[in-house]
Amino acid sequence: SMTAPTMAQPSSRSKGTSSLALAAVAGARRAIQGSLLPFAASAMAANCSEPMAPAECCEMEPEEACLIKDLVSPLQYCSPACQQRFLSLSWECYQKFHVSHQWYTMQSNCDPGKLANFKPSPRDAASGLSGMANEKAGGGEGQ
What we know:
disordered C terminus; disordered N terminus; mainly alpha; 53% helix; globular
């Protein structure tokens, strides 16, 4: 009976160490995301483990905030957070990437009903920067 408490102690200590290691990894991940993602502060405040996690929980490519990280295959799952994030992407993102394979995959996986409606901001539309006239004339990207 004297050995039972000593047997339990290493077990509880190793759990504590595991928790600390996981917390350190999570902290490092948050620090990296914080330096790369504009939504990082909101994501840390949000509960990203919820089934209907907010858009801020969708991880974007480190070098390109318009593209959902690693979403490159039609077979990949688009989480509810990433579905929301895709719907919130800007006109500028659409203009820059809508002809790319990764954008097409994101749209197919995250917005199969094509609910997203990308439009220029009123400021861009007023200044003629929408790019629509150029696309319709056949001079758009990928032509």
